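Q: I'm writing up a methods section and want to include an example of the input and output format. Could you take the sequence below and give the corresponding predicted structure tokens, formatted cleanly so I can copy it straight into the document?
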Amino acid sequence: MGYAIRLGTALLALATLSAGSALAASSNSAAADNANNGQKLINDAVRTVPMIAADGAAEDMLKHAKGVFIMPNLTETAFQKDGQSAQGVVLKHNSDGTWSDPTFMTIASISANVPASAKTGPAAFLLMTDKALNVFTQQNNCSLGAKAGFTIVGTSAMGKTPIGNGDILIWSDHPGAFAGSTISGAELSQNTTEDHNYYGHQATPEQIVAGTVTNTATNDLRHALPS
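A: Here is the clean output for your methods example:
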């Protein structure tokens, strides 16, 4: 009887260990998948940068920007109240011309002049002032619009806008999108879960753009942006 009890106990312990190992493996796999999702977004952002640079006015503004919010796949649902959020990454432009690692952010409920034909495509917010950069990196949630106290300039006026005459300049590959300087209702949220999954550390967006945590897999994006 004693042998049977010891055998049963051993089998139970083995089963518990196996279950724990399987759970750990599953957790590690989920973390890897989440990190891969973040890397895909960053890779998409890398492919977006040459599109911004192809617009001479936008490229020049980007060289003088304090930071940038790149949305590689901005869909029409982001322009609908309670629609699906669009994902993007925010990078800080350092004083020596280099760019920081990206922090992840979502945007939704944008009210702007978007053509009906616009289904999906890249867009970017060029953050031209420290005030704009701080909102994107230091506040967990915020709304853009008249009450936010920002000067926001759309693509159609970008080439005619002197540097420093807008807190946020908006570039889009859709002709006519963000045609004026009016944008309201946009809700920004820092994606701290994606930050944690990608960098493997609990870190705030402010810490990430300050270089407290890094990931060499972001090098292609940082180097793609003009100094």
